[in-house]
Amino acid sequence: MMRASQRTFVAVALLIGVVISASSADAQRRRRGSEPVDPLTAAEQAYTEVDFEQTLEHAGAALQAGGHTPDRLVRIYMLLGVSAAALGDAEGARDFFQRMLAVDPEAQLDDTVPPRLRAPYLEARGIVSARPEQLGVEVGIARAQSAIRVALIDPFQMARTVRVHARIEGQVQYTDVEAEAEAEVLAPLDGAANADRIEYWVEVLDPYGNQVVLVGSEFEPRTVGRVAAVAVPGGGGGGAGGGGAQEGGGGSILEDPLFWIISAGVVLVAGGVVAGVLIDQSSHVPVQTGVSFGIP
Question: Which of 199, 225, 251 is the last residue of a domain?
């Protein structure tokens, strides 16, 4: 039988174990509480728990935190729109969905969204598709100003800032220019006036610093400028000129196989026509015989 002292020792040991476990769990909770939580992650968690109030709150915080790519921004607007619809704010939901579709016209709702919450989305899709213009940029070279010209199309007034990163093709370093969003932005670039081709990538940011438009990237830039010349094998010794034009005289037309193919075709067609005419004429010539009929 266990002595009283032994029973006391065991009870104290168990108590200490419980206290240590509780302290460890509390310490872990404190550590988790001290770590910053990504608002978008928190919004996704609330969304899976069908807690639309928390989803709306965390997704709004994610939007204002900024720094999101277009894909993440579309997801944020989707969470905001569904949450607003679920909470009875159809107008707010429609606005969120319009912005989502402005960033990505092909964006869809999750399959789990019930039909009763889809009406604002369908209205927003109709509004966005009815617009003759879509959110985006058109890029060219302003040679007179030695600059990159960015024409901004922003039907829903979502843009606040335009960032242009450009370099002459073959260079390593980009020239970065940040400007207020306007219908046309000129980004100065040394050498642009005479450059054949310029590599670039463009970001259009909302007031929170989220990318509503991203064209190209640092490692996969787009290119604008003159079309590069393509070398033609056996081209008669002509060189490639600027703007993709081919310069220099070629060989004689009699050296071109295509000339002889076309010529042979013409001869065959002409021969067929002549033969047809002769056959047609022979069918109308009266038949002559050796028999004559006289009148007595």
Answer: 225
Instruction: Label the pairing between strands 161-168 and 175-180.
Output: antiparallel
- Picking from 208, 225, 242, the residue at the C-terminal end of a domain is 225
Q: Taking the C-alpha atoms of 123, 124, 129 and 133 in order, what is their torsion angle to the nearest 10 degrees?
A: 150
pTM: 0.67
Query: What's the CATH number where 159 sits?
Result: 2.60.40.1940
Q: Summarize pLDDT for 101-127 with one digit per residue, the tens.
A: 999 999 999 999 999 999 999 999 999
- Which one has a higher pLDDT value, 291 or 101? 101
pLDDT digits (tens, 9 = 90+) for 45-75: 999 999 999 999 999 999 999 999 999 999 9
- CA dist 282 and 289 (Å) reads 16
Q: Which residues contact 235 (CB under 8 A, 6 or more apart)?
A: 246, 248, 250
Q: Is 223 helix (H, G, I), strand (E, B) or coil?
A: strand
Q: Extract the tokens encoding 86.
A: 């679920």
**What domain range is 93 assigned to?**
39-130
> Based on the structure, what is the number of domains in the chain?
2
- Residue 149 domain-assigned (yes or no): yes
Helix (H, G, I), strand (E, B) or coil at 157: coil
Q: What is the pLDDT of residue 213?
A: 98
Determine, yes or no, domain membership for 97. yes
